[in-house]
Amino acid sequence: MGAEMTEQKQVRTEEIKAYLEAYCECMRAHAAEMMDQPMPVAGEELFALYEKTGNRLIYEEVYFTRRKMLAVFGCLSILEGKPEYLHKLEEVLDGICEEECWALPAHVERDSDPDWRIRVDLFASETAQALAEIISLVGDRLPESLRKKVRDNVFRRILEPFMNSRPPYNFWEGGDNNWNAVCCGSIGCAALSLMQEEPERLQPLLERLERSLRSYIGGFSDDGACMEGLSYFVYGMTYYTGFADMLYRYTEGKTDLMDQEKCRQIALFQQKCFFPSGRTLSFSDGDSRDKYKMGLTCFLAMRYAGMEIPPVSCAGGFDGDSCYRFMANIRDVLWTQQYLERAEKGALPQAEKNGEERGCDVLADAQWSICKGASGGGMAAKGGNNGEPHNHNDVGSFFYLVGDEMLLTDLGAGEYTKEYFHEGRYRILCNNSFGHSVPVIDGEGQKEGGEYSCSRFEADGRGETIISFAGAYGNDKVKELTRTLRYDCAMETLCVEDCLTAAKLPGGAPESSEPVPMSENLVTQFVPVAKGNTIRIEGEKYACLITVEELEGSIRWEQKKHMNHKGLEENVYCISWEVPADPAAEKRTCRFRVEKILK
């Protein structure tokens, strides 16, 4: 067994080396392509599109192309230092300093804020961090006049506004989500890059940032789950760890933001989100085809025993982040190199083996149950509430994977538009409960707000999950709604039982002669075929058969449209049937079985 494990580790090490070389070669290819191209213009006409139409993507495509040029030439100038890279970097740095506003249009209010140009949002902070670190690492290979221009812009736009404000600067300071981590982590890294010769100003700033970031770590569930989803874990933790690493080195080990059991639990969250096939949890604004950041993962694996590196094929390459965040890009190289060096020396932390292979992970505080099947797929279900970060009205929902195909789906994030984050959010299919596999009660879905929640969540870690979630609907006619899911990891069968109990009048009688009407709603992105009491869902490689017990009436389905996170339209098929009343007329019970079948 020892020789086999050693061989597996060697294979993984060689895969990571190949990944690293491909990553750097991708940057070189982009550099060759963009070397003679001018920076695209992010002008007023594009900036105003969001205000006029709600469309974010058109301006952001130009904005992030400019950040891509910053990342490419910034990274290559640091790593390789060729004169042609440095020369192009000068042009890019100057161009970004000339931008009217570093924040995105969706994060400023020009009509009401005369100082909108100076706005410390996610992307302005990221920009400041990138510029500050680049001029710090490239040093005097850049003209002093340009370095001064960069420093002046970083101080004027980001550092001074934050330092001169009284806490909280904005809603994100002291917040419990990744705005806090990204903004404070970026500000901290920028300050450590530019202010080490001003300790009297730097130290109070660092203490303020540390206080704020405690709330970010506190925002994770006790079992380390990021309620916003895997991609948001990656986003926030990249900036948290980047700052933590710089702060640790600056204080010569005296301040260690990673030295917390909670941080270890947060780190281990990532591997729980990956199914063996490479598909990922897509609850909330997640993505079922998410990728991990190799640099962040290597950093965490150097720190915590038990931290696993998922298959290298699941790692995002340089083009994996359409925002081209320099913080992550440079660390994908540097931290991965450090990991490989330690791996070759046998200097990585070793996890103790407990001898037990678990097919299911239970995140009790987050109320998530994740089961992994023999084909590489699995099942996941959630409780929670409808006031979670990046909330979807999805209490009690589940999805079902065979291999790498999600046959019963969770759509994850939709296209980010103005409506998506305002009053129209729950008119969008992927955000309301009609876009999730949960019952429809009296023709209505779940309601938004933290008070609409799961009252009971139990999972045994062996495939059985029980969720009581009548409270998610806010319907006075319903006393209880309980969903029991039983998943067999070896056979990959899923049995679901939903039981609705009607509320009673004060005299003890039911609210009506029958309990409130209830129908099932299952969501897939493959065309279903209904016949009798069965539904066949056939993907490209795998298929499943759903068998409904005690069906009255017929099974029907409706095609709907979903705008995915990239702004592309996709088809969604919502399968439904009425759930019959029990003879006692106080309950409705539905049982159905999902099983993997051959195509």
Automatic annotation (TrEMBL):
InterPro entries: Chondroitin_lyas
Taxonomic superkingdom: Bacteria
Species assigned in the record: Eisenbergiella porci
Name this polypeptide is given: Heparinase
